[in-house]
Structure formats: structure tokens, C-alpha cells
Write a structure and sequence with these properties.
The chain is mostly helical. It is built from twelve helices and three strands; from the N terminus they run H-H-H-E-E-E-H-H-H-H-H-H-H-H-H.
């Protein structure tokens, strides 16, 4: 019996598929997996973020709040305005039934911007421009109670939830995340940042605010005063920034008025004037 060494066929250990094609399939599969994971997290984020402890928000924004306060000191007169707003907010909180661990911190900004908004960690920003439009305290209380309601309902963290969850997922996949990533993102993104809430969130905050005013004043006279004033400016070319964070639709305004008219007033229904020092300082 004879043996012979045959030549090894060329390409015996080489795949018939081009290596770049194999890489493309693997890359495509990985991308699909990542996209699916991100979409799933995004859809679940709105529900999951509600379970993030409020203390996490507070801790994440504490240092940024202090830094902002240090870098933007208020004059004695401006501080008096902020203290008045804080006192009013504290009174409204009692009638709104926030959880014991929730605290509200008011930031007064001496700027002509017509706006006020709630953000992470229980912070509420009120601009001088909005105060200048206020006809009385009841209208101001409606806005303040509305912003407090957003915090009670955890709307800021829910609004930020999808983007935050996706960011943390991507940084984890990329291997660049760390244990403090959550707090870092909240701190850099959350404080003094205007957020956009859904119409459902705005309507729920309106209802909560009106219930609060009913308990606090005994009536809802003047609750819709600011909204009625702003309604006439909806078609102006230079809209107040208030509309960016608080879209005023005819349906929403009618709902506010209808809700207010459904309550029977108790006792004195006179609206309360703003304090003289506030008027003089604006």
C-alpha cells in the first residue's frame, strides 16, 4: 500500500463568507439589541422613575443649588421678595398634603422673564416678570400651588425620566458610567432648568392647585385671573416664555373656569392684595 502527501487545498481554513460581511452581521445584531434595550427602557422609564426616592433628587441638586445661590446673591430687597414667596409656598404646602420628606425651595430671579416653573429636588423658580403681572395674591397662589403640584406628582423626574434612563443605559453599555452617574446627570440637568410637561400633567396640576386654593382661601375667586390675562397675548409675536412651559389651550382655560365655578364659596370671597413692599420692589 502506498502513501502520498497530497497538497492541502487552498482556503480550507477560510470561510466562504467575506470577513467584513460577518462583521457587518455581528455589528447589525448588536445594534438591534442595543436599540431594542434602549426603546424598552425608554417606554418603562415613565413608570420606573416615579419609584426613585425623592431624597435622591434632593441630594443630586443640593450642591448645584448652593453653588447657584452663592454665584447669584440677592440684594436685601430681593431676598425679602424670595422670603415672601417661600412663606406663601409653605402655607400652600400644608393644604396640599405633600409627603413629609418633600420640601419646597423657592428661587426668586430678578429678571423680566414672565415665567415660573418647578424642577427637580423640590425647587421652584419664580421670575420678577411674572410677579409684575400678578393682579393679587390669589392669582399668584394659583401659579405657586400649580408648581407645587408638579413636585407632588413627581412630574419633573418623570419628564426627565426617558432621557435620563437612556443616557445611563448607554453609558453603562459603553463602560463609561460610574456609581455617581445618576446624581451627576440629575445635578447638571435638573436645577433651574425648564421642563416640558404633558397636557395631562398640566391639567392634573391645575386641579390640585384649585383644590389647594379652596382649602386655603375658602373660595376660588381670582384663581384664573392670570390665565385670563395671558389668554389675550396668545397671538402676540413675542409670546411670554410662560407659554413654553405652560401651554394655554382654550380647553384648558375653560376647564379651569369650569372647575372653579363648580365650588361653592365659603365666607369672605374677597381676593387678597399683594403686600405693598412687593409692589414697590418690582
Amino acid at each position: 500500500m502506498g502513501y502520498e502527501n497530497r497538497d492541502i487545498p487552498e482556503g480550507i481554513n477560510v470561510s466562504e463568507t467575506h470577513p467584513l460581511k460577518e462583521f457587518a452581521w455581528l455589528a447589525a445584531g448588536l445594534i438591534i439589541l442595543v436599540v431594542f434595550s434602549v426603546v424598552a427602557l425608554s417606554l418603562a422609564a415613565e413608570h420606573l422613575t416615579r419609584y426613585i426616592p425623592f431624597s435622591v433628587e434632593q441630594k443630586a441638586t443640593a450642591s448645584l443649588s448652593k453653588r447657584y445661590t452663592d454665584e447669584h446673591p440677592l440684594s436685601q430687597q430681593q431676598l425679602q421678595v424670595q422670603n415672601y414667596l417661600q412663606t406663601l409656598a409653605n402655607a400652600l404646602v400644608i393644604h396640599q398634603g405633600l409627603d413629609d420628606n418633600m420640601t419646597i425651595k423657592i428661587h426668586y430671579v430678578d429678571d423680566d422673564t414672565i415665567n415660573a416653573f418647578a424642577t427637580l429636588g423640590g425647587h421652584i423658580v419664580v421670575f420678577k416678570g411674572l410677579l409684575q403681572m400678578m393682579p393679587h395674591e390669589n392669582a399668584l397662589s394659583m401659579v405657586m400651588a400649580h408648581e407645587i403640584a408638579h413636585i407632588k406628582h413627581r412630574d419633573p423626574i418623570v419628564s426627565l425620566g426617558r432621557g435620563l434612563t437612556v443616557y445611563l443605559a448607554l453609558t453603562s453599555i459603553a463602560g463609561v458610567g460610574n456609581n455617581s452617574a445618576f446624581e451627576d446627570v440629575l445635578g447638571q440637568t435638573g436645577l433651574l432648568t425648564m421642563m416640558s410637561f404633558s397636557r395631562e400633567q398640566e391639567s392634573a396640576a391645575d386641579r390640585e392647585a384649585m383644590l389647594t386654593l379652596k382649602r386655603y382661601y375658602g373660595h376660588l375667586n381670582g384663581a384664573a385671573a392670570l390665565f385670563e390675562m395671558l389668554e389675550h397675548e396668545k397671538d402676540e409675536p413675542n409670546l411670554p416664555s410662560f407659554f413654553n412651559t405652560h401651554p394655554l389651550t382654550d380647553k384648558r382655560i375653560k376647564a379651569i373656569k369650569g372647575f372653579a365655578s363648580s365650588f361653592r364659596a365659603e365666607g369672605d370671597t374677597t381676593v387678597k392684595a399683594l403686600p405693598d413692599f412687593l409692589r414697590q420692589s418690582l
